[in-house]
Amino acid sequence: MSAEASISGQFASAGAHDPAHRRLALGFLNLAHGLDHFVMLIYPVVAIELQAVYGKSYAALIALSTASFVSFGLFSLPAGWLGDRWSRRNMMVAFYIGCGASLLGAAFAPSLYALGCALFALGMFAAIYHPVGTAMVVETATATQRGRTMAFNGVCGNFGVSLAAGVTAALTAAFSWRGAFLVPGLICIVTGLIYLWLTPDDGKHAVKRSAPADVTLPTSTAAIMAGLFILVAISAGLVFNTISVALPKIVDERVGGGISLVEVGGLTTAIFLCGALAQITVGRLVERFPLHVLIAISAVMQFVGVVWTAYAAGAWLLFALAFAMASIYGQITLNDLVIARYTADAWRGRVYAVRYFLTFMVSGVAVSMIAFLYGRGGFDLVLGATAFIALGFLVAVLAIAFLANSVEKVRIIQPAE
């Protein structure tokens, strides 16, 4: 029995460094990132169709997804802990199978109450990816290509967001709103079974993670940056989720011309794809420029993009949303890279868990904020509030960039001493 355990542990450890195994592992992680964002954004599109089915307002229906987004953030904490202490691979199996089962529950929900319960379960299982999957990507990527690997993983997540609106609209048109949940649910379950079959368990490897951080921070600096990252996570989560959830309705209402649901989905997809292009660019830029400089620039761009969106309409609105989305997704990748640079591998899952706990917990607040503000002032009020939050994000990021710049200067000077 001990010999078998030893061989299994050696296989998992050796496999992690094998190029073929690395490509396979990253392939599943990239697909999981895409599916994670895709499944969480099915309902915001379906909600538009449910207005006619149940005769309820958009504000009332979109509020139904609050529990889903709250669980998406809440359960990231135990997911990160289990990934670090038990098995990241097994947690990813639970992600695939759990998301699939939850989607099937939503597809066959007999009432809005049952649909809300299924969405809550979906958020719980979808919460696994970011703390666990992101830590696995950092662990699996080679040190020299971490930037572009993380960026490509971000692009895959962005593709999930981008395709959610268009594919969901098409599935709804072809099979009703229930089909929009059923098809991706089956895909998740089948993929999870294949992943379980092809990848080795890493339970033995989990207790041996001891790689130090790329850059060690002084205790006082680490404490200040941790506090600032809390502000960044909260404000970034509000901006990201408000724009992402409301985007189909913003396009539907403010572009004009009485466009169809399928056209709304197509335009929304095109806007989200601008974020993918930004992440590809970021993956190259991090190999040439300091991370703290890039994240400061992205914060400025995000603020400008949200303000522009608040005042734009018609065709100009599409350009404003594309600019805002590019900056939003660019800073997400940069945030993950900054955390990876200053955090040891043994703690990355838990640090990412805290980050995404805050980011996605406020997604429930974002949904409630959309429902509350939209009912009182439309998207003028929603986007105005989002711009104010983006300003808070900008201030916090500039402070982090200043501290990081001081640490990196000392790190460059010390070898010469």
Structural commentary:
The protein has helices at 2-17, 19-40, 42-54, 58-62, 66-74, 76-85, 88-107, 112-126, 129-140, 146-198, 203-206, 219-254, 261-285, 291-311, 315-342, 345-413. By secondary structure, the chain is mainly α. It is built from 16 helices and no strands. It has one domain: Growth Hormone, Chain: A (Up-down Bundle).
Our Rg estimate from Cα atoms comes to 21 Å
Shape: globular
Largest sheet: none
List low-confidence stretches: 1-16
Structure classification: mainly alpha
CATH homologous superfamily caption: MFS general substrate transporter like domains
Number of domains: 1
Percentage of β-strand residues: under 5%
Termini separation: 53 Å
Kindly provide the name of the CATH class. Mainly Alpha
Series of secondary-structure elements, N-terminal to C-terminal: HHHHHHHHHHHHHHHH
The residue fraction in helices comes out at over 70%
Return the average pLDDT rounded to an integer: 83
Number of helices: 16
Number of strands: 0
CATH architecture, by name, is Up-down Bundle
Quick recap:
With 417 residues, the protein is mainly alpha-helical. The chain has helices spanning 2-17, 19-40, 42-54, 58-62, 66-74, 76-85, 88-107, 112-126, 129-140, 146-198, 203-206, 219-254, 261-285, 291-311, 315-342, 345-413. It is built from 16 helices and no strands.
Secondary-structure map with pairings?
Layout: H1 2-17, H2 19-40, H3 42-54, H4 58-62, H5 66-74, H6 76-85, H7 88-107, H8 112-126, H9 129-140, H10 146-198, H11 203-206, H12 219-254, H13 261-285, H14 291-311, H15 315-342, H16 345-413
Helix pairs in contact: 2-7, 2-9, 2-10, 3-10, 5-8, 5-16, 6-7, 6-9, 6-16, 7-8, 7-9, 7-10, 9-16, 10-13, 10-15, 12-13, 12-15, 12-16, 13-15, 14-15, 14-16
